[in-house]
Design a protein that fits this description.
Number of strands of chain B: 21
Distance between the termini of chain A: 37 Å
Strand content of chain B: 35-45%
Helix content of chain B: 10-25%
CATH class of the largest domain in chain A: Mainly Alpha
Largest sheet of chain B: 6 strands, mixed
Oligomer: heterodimer
Strand order of the largest sheet of chain A: 1-2
Number of domains of chain B: 2
CATH topology of the largest domain in chain B: Rossmann fold
CATH class of the largest domain in chain B: Alpha Beta
CATH superfamily of the largest domain in chain A: MetI-like
CATH architecture of the largest domain in chain B: 3-Layer(aba) Sandwich
Order of helices and strands of chain B: EEEHEEEHHHHEHEHEEHHEEEEEEEEEEE
CATH superfamily of the largest domain in chain B: P-loop containing nucleotide triphosphate hydrolases
Chain lengths: 555, 352
């Protein structure tokens, strides 16, 4: 009996591990091998080029400093909101919190056009500026570092908000009062008590934001113009445009090395965070707004936050309705037309169908594997944490690197999957899996043995216990995981663009292509497609917030 | 009503519960009191049917419960960490037991509201709340309402107030006793907190190292602790080691490091190892006593107030002792304290 259980156990944890081995570690190994032995013999020319050519040194330097500055700016911008969410209880708080998640789960390929719609040459702000004042478009942000900073803050705002405000809410306000009674001024209290206690969570959030900014792809590709390129963009260009595979492999390896170190630091910080945090009931640390000063503080902050986070998305919608003859649905109605008469052109409606097809396969794959992995993580006493960190690894690898790895690994024996359509949902699954697992695990943790026992004590027989306790919670977990996988698959751009065959193009690819082409119709269609993607993602996210139990989100 | 007969349970090859026998009468609140790690929770779980005993029987209303699964015993258990259903709101949590009994839907909502009001929660405000957003005290009350709603034949509590702070704990403790009496419920309550146990129980069972040390009403236990462990555990800490027994004036006298003590009651037996001086034993404070027995010499090092009385700490060669004394006291004086023989008794050692 015991032997049979352990076979089942190893099958459960074995399947996700096997998937990870074949579709994650094998491609990474392929990159590693190729960067050293590209042409059969040991060949370090790729590395030499990176080290010698000042161009690549500059790319690496740019990648690092833009990520660092973006991270610092994001923390500075999000900290006041973290305070407000931690210490005050106000109406609409859950809704506002849910809305801040929207940008984070928005596909990059939607965020970038949204910023173009707001700040681009044809954007709303320039439209207003040219009509009110005389002259050419005045705001020239596209192609500069500033719009990249803005997009990165927009993107990662919610990470800082969630991680830091959770810790902050659990800090005992009495600590601050105690310090004040000991003679510390308000500012001293913040710098000597609050900030040091928040520091681990700020650092954890910063690391995560830094990883995302460091591997930023879609945002830089579309908003950065020709001059600004991160390592990620450079890998893409070298592999897809220059076909210099050894160089791309060397660049990928550099990127993998960097992000691995970062994710390692993050997991270590996270375990420390879990140990040191003394959880208090949030009802005891939160209070309602009393003075006018507090009300104004919260109102101004929430309004600013919503304006910053929702304006680009709202403008996107507005731009999608803009036609030569005023506002209308023309951009949407013409989505299935081949306006360019091109042979290789895929009508946006076909792209939509492809995207939905890939997304549904991704959902099935990611939820099955995610459930198995999450089950293994929650049920294994020893090694559970190790297992957990293991499945977090794909988060440390950028999508483009992954896609590039697929090109190298699956175009030759023993795994010659060239032209295999199913590689796309497999790549999507791998990108989605860390987040899917992280959203399922906290839910499965809710099924504690004593909750089952409590049901039994209240008269539920074993079948009833399963139906009333296990099943509803697992179903929620499945739903949350499915939504995550769905949203991520719909918006995935970096890996798809490298491995998909043209006739199987997805919506993000179609948007990217439309944005790259001149003409008002193309621009309008790009906006319309982005809006569609945004609406579907937003609907999914709102649904997910309703399904979750409590407010726990694990990154 | 409930009879526990010779229950034993091993855990990791060590005895956790050893030969436990007691009964609980209908409508009685019995409290199992003991330090942590003495098998209290395991005892409850065995009675609930969540764990099996290695030996012994549990008989409820004449039926042996050996082969009755937990969900058919009709008992209620309030867990230490409450075990609220995280995916159900307050109403669905409280309604759960009623649904399992196939109570009609309309009656369920009536009884859920009733149960919530019973535990002091406004049903209108709470039924639709998410249990994860409640405060600790509110969650406790919801768990209590859920346990009581199906009117279990026996309700058990596993340190239900453990997570609360002191003031809330005393409030809820007092309320709980009144509530159980009002509903005429039979209850078994487990705790390590002696104040809580004394406040709530009709009868106490003191448990240590898997064995019952003493059973009785709170007043019996306080006035006549069965052994040194029980005495110390209920807060009677003036305990001296016995050095030998002597005969004086035809009575038994106990010899200790700080003098001879002669209790007036004939409770002194040969297996006694300790002498207990009750806090009310202080009779007279003098500079030098003429008495040959029942005198404690030492220095008053501290006074304080507790429970409406003044207490002082007497520093002696055998350690510090506390006594109740409602009169003026001069600190830092060498004195002789004359003790009432009625407040002195000899005790055997703990029952390991």
């Amino acid at each position: 009996m015991r032997a049979r259980i352990s076979t089942l156990q190893s099958l459960i944890s074995g399947l996700p591990l096997l998937f990870l081995a074949l579709f994650y570690f094998y491609p990474l190994a392929a990159i590693l091998a190729f960067s050293f032995f590209g042409n059969g013999a040991l060949d370090l020319s790729g590395f030499r080029e990176i080290l010698v050519d000042p161009y690549y040194r500059n790319v690496l330097w740019f990648t690092t400093w833009q990520a660092a500055v973006s991270t610092i700016l994001t923390i500075l911008v999000a900290l006041p909101a973290a305070y407000i969410f931690a210490r005050f209880q106000f109406r609409g708080q859950t809704l506002v919190r849910a809305l801040t998640t929207l940008p984070f789960l928005m596909p990059t390929i939607v965020v970038a056009p949204a910023f173009v719609a707001l700040l681009g040459p044809r954007g709303i702000l320039n439209y207003v500026a040219t009509n009110l004042f005389v002259g050419a478009p005045t705001i020239q942000l596209v192609g500069t570092i500033w719009i990249i900073f803005l997009a990165h803050i927009f993107y990662n705002y919610t990470i800082v908000l969630r991680i830091v405000s959770t810790t902050w809410a659990n800090l005992d306000p009495q600590l601050g009062n105690a310090a004040r009674l000991l003679g510390a001024q308000r500012a001293r209290v913040f710098f000597e008590i609050t900030l040091p206690l928040l520091m681990p969570s700020i650092l954890a959030a910063a690391l995560l934001v830094f990883i995302f900014d460091f591997t930023s792809f879609g945002v830089i590709l579309i908003l950065g113009g020709a001059r600004l390129a991160t390592l990620e963009v450079e890998i893409y260009r070298t592999a897809a445009n220059l076909f210099d595979l050894p160089l791309a492999a060397a660049l990928s390896l550099a990127q993998i090395g960097f992000t691995f170190i970062l994710i390692l630091m993050y997991t270590r910080l996270q375990t420390r965070l879990a140990v040191t945090m003394r959880v208090r009931s949030q009802n005891m640390t939160k209070r309602t707004l009393k003075t006018w000063g507090e009300k104004i503080l919260v109102a101004v902050n929430v309004a600013g936050m919503l304006l910053f986070l929702l304006a680009p998305l709202g403008v996107l919608l507005l731009q999608s309705l803009q036609t030569p003859n005023g506002l209308g649905l023309e951009n949407y109605l013409r989505l299935n037309e081949n306006t360019r008469g091109s042979v290789t052109f895929i009508p946006p409606t076909d792209a939509l169908r492809n995207s939905l097809f890939f997304a549904s396969i991704t959902v099935a794959l990611a939820v099955t594997l995610g459930l198995l992995a999450a089950y293994a993580i929650t049920r294994t006493r020893r090694g559970g944490g190790w297992f957990d960190a293991f499945f977090l690894l794909p988060l440390a690898t950028s999508a483009v690197t992954l896609g590039f790895g697929y090109i190298l690994a699956f175009s030759r024996a023993p795994f010659d999957f060239r032209a295999a359509v199913w590689l796309v949902p497999v790549a999507h699954t791998l990108v989605a899996l860390p987040l899917v697992i992280r959203s399922i695990v906290p839910l499965l943790h809710q099924i504690k043995p004593n909750v089952r026992e409590a049901a039994a004590m209240l008269g539920a027989n074993p079948t009833r216990v399963f139906r009333e306790i296990d099943l509803p919670i697992v179903l929620r977990a499945v739903l949350v995981g499915a939504i995550f996988a769905f949203v991520i698959s719909l918006g995935e751009f970096g890996a798809t663009t490298l491995i998909v065959r043209p006739e199987w193009s997805t919506v993000p690819l179609a948007i990217y292509r439309l944005l790259g082409q001149p003409g008002l119709t193309n621009y309008g269609q790009a906006m319309a497609l982005s809006t569609l993607l945004m609406v579907v993602s937003a609907a999914a996210i709102v649904l997910m917030e309703r399904v979750r139990i409590g407010e726990n989100v694990e990154f | 009503m409930l009879q526990i007969q010779n229950l034993s349970k091993d855990y990791n090859d060590a005895a956790l519960l050893r030969d436990i026998s007691f009964t609980v009468a209908a409508g009685e609140i019995v409290c199992v009191l003991g330090p942590s790690g003495t098998g209290k929770t395991t005892l409850l779980r065995i009675i609930a049917g969540l764990e099996q005993a290695d030996a012994g029987r549990i008989v409820f209303e004449g039926n042996d419960l050996r082969n009755v699964p937990p969900h058919e015993r009709g008992f209620g258990l309030m867990f230490q960490d409450l075990a609220l259903f995280p995916h159900k709101n307050v109403f669905d949590n409280v309604a759960f037991g009623l649904r399992m009994k196939n109570v009609a839907t309309r009656e369920i909502s009536v009884r859920v509201n009733e149960s919530l009001e019973l535990v002091g929660l406004d049903a209108k405000l709470f039924t639709q709340r998410d249990v994860n957003t409640l405060s600790g005290g509110e969650q406790q009350r919801v768990a209590l309402a859920r346990t009581l709603a199906p009117r279990p034949r026996l309700v058990m509590f596993d340190e239900p107030l453990g997570a609360l702070d002191r003031i809330l704990r005393e409030d809820l403790g007092n309320e709980l006793r009144a509530l159980l009496k009002r509903l005429d419920m039979t209850a078994l309550y487990v705790t390590h907190d002696q104040d809580e146990a004394f406040a709530i129980a009709d009868r106490l069972i003191i448990l240590n190292a898997g064995r019952i040390q003493q059973m009785g009403a709170p007043i019996e236990i306080y006035q006549d602790p069965a052994n040194e462990f029980v005495a110390r555990f209920v807060g009677l800490t003036n305990v001296l080691e016995l050095r030998g027994l002597e005969t004086g004036d035809g009575r038994l006298c106990a010899r200790t490091d700080v003098g001879i003590f002669a209790p007036d009651k004939k409770r002194t037996e040969s297996q006694d190892e300790f002498v207990l001086l009750r806090p009310r034993a202080a009779e007279r404070i003098v500079e030098h006593s003429e008495r040959a027995e029942n005198v404690l010499r030492g220095k008053i090092v501290e006074t304080f107030w507790r429970g409406g009385h003044q207490w002082f700490v007497l520093e002696t060669r055998a350690g510090n002792f506390v006594f109740e004394w409602d009169d003026r006291i001069k600190l830092h004086q060498e004195i002789s304290l004359e003790l009432k023989p009625s407040e002195i008794q000899c005790l055997p050692g703990g029952n390991e």
